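Re: [help] complex structure
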Amino acid sequence: MATVAITPDYMGDYQDGVENFHGNQVVYFGWDHHLLFCSPHAFPLPPDMPFAAVMSDVLPGVWGVHPDFPKINWETATWMLNGKPFRPDPAKSLIDNGIDHKSAIRLQTPELTGIAGTGS
Amino acid sequence: MAAKKLSLKDKYRLLTRDLSWEPTYRDKKEIFPLEDFEGIKITDWDKWEDPFRLTMDAYWKYQAEKEKKLYAIFDAFAQNNGHLNISDARYLNAIKVFLTGISPLEYSAAQGFMQTGRQFSGQGARIACQMQAIDELRHAQTQIHAMSHFNKYFDGFNEFMHQHQRVWYLSVPKSFFDDARTAGPFEFMVAISFSFEYVLTNLLFVPFMSGAAYNGDMATVTFGFSAQSDEARHMTLGIEVIKFLLEQHEDNVPIVQKWIDKWFWRGVRMLGIVGWMMDYLLPKKVMSWKEAWEVYYEEAGGALFKDLARYGIRPPKYVEVAELEKEHISHQFAFTLYQYTHAAALHITAPTEEEMNWLSEKYPNTFDKYYRPRWEYLREQEAKGERFYNGGLPQLCQTCQIPMVFTDMNDPTQINYRDTHYDGERFHFCSDGCKDIFNDEPEKYIHAWMPAHQIFMGNCGGADLPSVVENYYNIRMGIDNMDYHGSPDEARWKEWKGLRSVEDKLKEAV
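Output below.
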């Protein structure tokens, strides 16, 4: 549906185009069933950042405080990219892994059940 | 010769319906250019029944009497150091949320009703909008005056209007009203007068005002009483608007239904703030959010939508999701503001053991199972000196702008992820309700000013959160924000109430 507006063919200015982020793109990371973090996180990241750097540099800075974080087995952990199962290649860049601007990535570690087993 | 005294009936006609005229040398469509574009068909404005049954002179008289009484009580409250009679200084978080989140909406409503009233060719609707605009202005002013007393003694109040325009979680109520005010005049009326004032307002007003009464805040509770008769009028306008639109033309029914669906959902999302206030911010609790929802929405709203069924209107879409979420949302909001209290002019702290017991009792299906263990962990962390603050920025919903905190009601520890594509770009949502609103008018919502993204773009005073908080939000680090325990508000309160611990006194003696 088109917006009902007094101006014909109304089109709001899109605020969040990738060109506004100074060479970065926004990527969202959520960790399933780990609600100590109230919501997934947003990060501005260079598109050519290797996925390995996400695991070694980006996520620990925010998720490292969770008692489950050191227990993550990165070999068996699974991922979702924009709602579909996804196997990242750690050596490749975000963009070469198909992770574009405003992609949402979910980490899944079913063996880790969060604080007191409550998905927290 | 003395002027003849008018009969009440004549006076009413002259002061309401006789203020308008038929244009003779300009086209009516030129004068009221916004009346048609939404697709609403009005066949006869004379069928409009004045909901207020008031003339302007009577209105001024009633309002002036109320003002006199209200300000007398504000004076007494100030002279008697009313701030010392509240239950606990933690209570003031509720008032800070109200002043930064709700009072600016009263002002926005005043502007909205002025703009909207101008656009109706029916003079009855114009007069009603005018009176409500003045009411809303009065509410903004009297709320600010009621709460200004606390500003003399506590932190976090002084930049409320600046913060309403800028702070991430205040973009939730701000964007709600901006959305309504940038819609056409009929959508504004269905959004604010009907969906908000008529269907949902009791969920906002009653909890805050009874919360004030329970917690010894006589200034705010007196404001509440003084506004009550205004609110009753606003509800009357809401029901008149909806019946008028539905009776004017059958083509209006699907348009009105779409607006009810949209504004119910936007209202439900915003009222999560109230749920959090009721369950977590009041040291002395009134009722739970779940109970309030059951009384004020399920019972009252159920009866309303039965009544509207004869016009072909059904209950709002996704009402069943909202009913399941009533056992979760206050807790989800509470964790969010707890872990981001460094980025808010609030001192949010974990619930006490006694409060957790109350929550267990009020939320037998969810609190112990999902939420209590998380609070216990957070309390342990705090006791170890490692109070948890979230180190990143949240992903936000494109429509309601709330962090993506809502979970799947079939799997309550899993965040909901919804997305859609528009014009080659991807957009994310917290729920099907918010996704539907976007998909219906994407050109409007791509324009949303998303606080987390704006920080990344460098538009908010700095690259790291402390710079944003200090330079852009005008929140003084360590004074206006961070946990209540250790805050200057807590220290002052303890000093005034003689609650300093023996340990504190010993430290000072050394």
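The mean pLDDT of chain B is 94.
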